[in-house]
Amino acid sequence: MRFADLGAVAKAPPPLPRQSASSSSSSVSLLLFLVIPLLILVAVDIIATSSSHAFVAMIVSIPPFASTPVADIQAGYDRLRSTFRSGRTRNLEYRKRQIRRLYWGLDDLRPALVEALRRDMGKSAHEANLSEIDWVQAEAIDMCNNLDDWARDESVVGLPLVYRPMSPRIQFEPLGSVLVIGPFNFPVMLNVSAVMGAIAAGNTVVLKPSEQSPHSAMVLKQLFEEYVDPDVVFCVNGAIPETQALLDLKFDKVAFTGGRKAGTIIATKAAQSLTPVLLELGGRNPAFINKDANVALAARRLLWQKCLNAGQICLTHNYALVHRPLVSGFVDELKLQYRTFMPQGAKVSPDYSRIVNQNHFRRIKAMLDNTNGKVVLGGSSDEADLFIEPTVVVVNDVDDSMMTEESFGPVWSIVPYDSVEEAIDMANSIDPTPLALYTFGSDEDNNKVLSNVTSGGASINDGMFHAILQATPFGGIGGSGMGNYHGYYSFRAFSHLRTICKVPSWADRILRVRYMPYSSGELQRYRRVLLPKPNFDRDGNVVRGLSYWLGLVLALGGRSKRSIALRWGLLAIVALGLGLGADWTR
Q1: How many whole angstroms separate alpha carbon 413 and alpha carbon 393?
Q2: Which one of 144, 235, 307, 314 is the catalytic residue?
Q3: Over the stretch 315-332, which tens digit does the pLDDT of each residue have?
Q4: Would you call 314 a catalytic residue per the annotation?
Q5: Is 280 a catalytic residue?
Q6: pTM
Q7: For the chain, what percentages of helix, strand and coil (3-state, to nearest 5) are there?
Q8: Which of 40, 144, 280, 576 would suit a FRET pair with 357, their CA atoms being 20 to 30 Å apart?
Q9: For 361-380, how does the pLDDT look when each residue is reduced to its tens digit (9 = 90+)?
């Protein structure tokens, strides 16, 4: 309801007969009862939809950034180790309770988180909620709703029939204590999501947020200290000394999101203690605008992901390979979409973020200053405001300054090409293992790109949609990282898959071949009875013998009792038929 509507509600009614004092008082009370809630709702709506950050700044107090004393790190680490050894984190309900508390902590601290993201990145409240807080809350709900199913023991795929009495199963074991080193660009989503995954798997966690988002780091510390068992999560703030102190400790896994240089240092350090790592590192991601692409759609969706968070996203495209006849129309559509997104320009748009700090600003600005290409969109900047306009440069040289490093900002290149094969060759020469890939066009061209260019993930006819889904694995390959996470895959990433077999005593009858003294007769019996026979000839051709048809029958149907009965019934009929056939031929 708007103020004009409230005016209509409050409009004076025609004169009424004189009422008693008690009746008049009741009428006033009723009017207040009706109007005050409406006023409250309107006020809440104004606050929620306001693009001004001043109101939030007035009511939110964020303490100045303070590093965790290095001397306190060992004690915190020991506390988490002790908690894990106690077995407390193995209880599924206990894990879910920590994640539920995080959900409500995010809700309670939402104003502080929104303000912290504004101070750190110039991020709008809309982006702070949509791409950070709301996303993590949705993942928290998903984890709590599905954790019981995820944690169930898995059966072994393709297990030979003869070994089924040994009841092999795969159990998800917590790793122990996990170190999560987070990035600056999405400090809520990327930090909290990884921590929740580690908790869901039954681990204790040390979190090291990025000092480059200092306000967010302080609110995250408050979140974990106030809403989660402090014996399960320990948030360490600081910079290089604190990170080095953490890496000197023995963790059971290290998860890092950031640049390749830092990722290499962390992986090298972890290798010294044989600690596994999960690395999400980014790369020079390509976008392909093929000859049959919807140019308007491609322009809107690619420009969007370069405007989101001012392009400071490891997933965004670094360059777009555009079929040469489409370049002019593609540039025109980019200009149109830019005017649609920000009619008054990015500088005054309340929706557009800023570069995180001066070092990153100057790095991106140097890419623009040193290019030999032609700026066709944007190009302005303001170091005092850490502002760089969304900028597109047409280049003809893969060694141009715009192409030789990941921009991690709102600038990108257009590289014209004449054939999809040429575009594929260029992409593979620029970065053979990017984190993401985007391709627009016909199914034929898109499939050709996907079949010939490797990437951590890919989206067809869109920007980074594959990584937005909580239910899909997100991660890199080669130089863009190793391992993956999100939702169920976070649970797996922070679990050890332990195989367990329960071997009955009577199994010695079929396992005699392993005992000394060895016997050639037992070896022959083992080969005849237990060793699988090849279903292919010496030329590699598949031979569909009895074992093939037997396997086909066993694979029919599902796991229900009815399906199992039907399979065994069919086998009995086949066996009977084979027996009758043998009798008939005698």
Answers
A1: 5
A2: 314
A3: 999 999 999 999 999 999
A4: yes
A5: yes
A6: 0.84
A7: 55, 15, 35
A8: 280
A9: 999 999 999 999 999 999 99
